[in-house]
Amino acid sequence: MGYHHLALAAKDMKATHAFYEDVMGFELVKVEVAPIPSGGWGKHFFYRIGGDDTCFIAFWELHDGPGASDYIFDLNRAAKLPPMTNHYAFNVNNDEELNEWRITWQKAGLAVFEIDHNWCKSIYTTDPSGNAVEFCLTSGTFDASTRTRALEALDETEFNPSPAPAKIKMWKAEPA
Fold first, then answer.
1. Could you tell me which residues are beta bridge partners of residue 171?
2. Over the stretch 151-163, which tens digit does the pLDDT of each residue have?
3. What is the pLDDT of residues 107-164, one digit of tens each?
4. What is the reported pLDDT for 176?
5. Handedness of CA 161, 164, 165, 166 (dihedral sign)
């Protein structure tokens, strides 16, 4: 079973479009305009990821809904969670591609947080709605011992930390 799309509400659809098409390189290919069952209406924009029609990210621009002035578009703020808890990650194939995305984000005026988790390497930034976006490179492998550790953690009630990250770095946005 594959992933088809992730759908999120956008605080500012024009800024969201500029980020996901101009910075991320995803192509806007479709919009659905429809009423929202709870009231109001919305435009549902679909962006193609990876050049084919099997994987998308989609955004809702919502209009005239009850309580619209109270909508919170940042997933973590809405859920009252620490920043970056809820996030979405896109795959890269090698270290060079990960570094290229870091540079692209910095040149777009975005700060970038980098972390080597010892089994994957990631960079993070936020989109115009405040949602955390990640590019991730799997750098390790999984075996019976990693599965056993994960299963044990399901029942743990005491803090039992993983090994410290191999690298943590904050990259500043480049001036425009």
1. 112
2. 999 999 999 999 9
3. 999 999 999 999 999 999 999 999 999 999 999 999 999 999 999 999 999 999 999 9
4. 73
5. negative
- 78: tokens are 């809405």
DSSP summary character for residue 68? G
* Three-point CA angle 102, 10, 127, nearest 5°: 15
Q: Which two tokens stand for residue 2?
A: 């594959």
Query: What is the helix, strand, coil percentage profile of the chain, to 5?
Result: 25, 35, 45
List phi, psi (to 5°) of 116: -100, 110
Distance separating alpha carbons of residues 133 and 123, to the nearest angstrom: 8
Percent of the chain topping pLDDT 70: 100
CA pair distance 129, 63, nearest whole angstrom: 16
Phi and psi based region of residue 163 (left: phi greater than 0; alpha: psi -120 to 50; beta: remaining): beta
pLDDT at residue number 170: 97
CB 105 within 8 A of CB 123: yes
Nearest to 104 by CA among 135, 59, 131, 136: 135
Residues 6+ apart with CB under 8 A from 109: 173, 174, 175, 176
